[in-house]
Design goal:
about 200 residues; mainly alpha; globular
């Protein structure tokens, strides 16, 4: 119970720099949509999606069926972004990149903390790396799917994939070893950075 709650709380905290990074890069590329919607902030409440950030991650943590969740998506207008679809790809990559950077910072904190700090920061770093890997899956609505558009995959294919994306992700995380493979990869990466 406590472990599941801590994991969800950490996840919520990790969605904040992730969504902020999307918003900040979009703003820097000329799209003021995130600014107008109040998303260029590190306030966690601005980025929470109660179903995706709290309820579903908590249920999956309790059930042991892997881990899936999301923050409130940052809206942006590709027509306003410098670089168009390529700019959109940069906005998409900013989220996972922020998770990697945050993981490095957490591991640096763990290296200089006591046992409890090491445990919490180590867990948070692993989850942050997991989110970076998970979000690069090229299935809508994940960040990796925007790379399909930047690669000029026909939009009708992307749209059809988007219709079933969420179901595909749930099935993949619940019925295959994808979740455990990503979890193992994130632990291995965390250990490699830490050492």
């Amino acid at each position: 119970m406590e472990s599941a709650l801590l994991k969800v709380l950490i996840f919520w905290m990790l969605t904040t720099p992730h969504e902020f990074a999307h918003a900040w890069v979009a703003m820097k590329l000329g799209d003021d949509t995130p600014v107008r919607e109040g998303r260029v902030t590190l306030n966690p409440l601005a980025h929470v999606d109660w179903l995706g950030t709290v309820i579903l991650p908590l249920l999956m943590s309790f059930s042991g069926a892997g881990f899936i969740g999301w923050g409130r998506p940052v809206n942006n207008d590709p027509a306003e972004l410098r670089g168009g679809l390529n700019g959109m790809a940069l906005v998409a990559l900013a989220g996972p990149a922020s998770n990697v950077i945050f993981a490095v910072l957490l591991l640096a904190a763990a290296a200089h903390g006591g046992p409890e700090i090491r445990s919490v920061c180590g867990t948070a770093a692993q989850l942050s790396l997991f989110l970076a890997i998970f979000n690069m899956i090229p299935v809508p609505p994940l960040d990796g799917s925007k790379l399909l558009l930047a690669a000029r995959v026909p939009f009708f294919i992307y749209k059809e994939l988007a219709h079933f994306g969420f179901v595909l992700l749930l099935l993949a995380m619940s019925l295959t070893s994808l979740g455990s493979c990503m979890s193992n990869s994130s632990w291995d990466t965390a250990r490699a950075i830490f050492h």
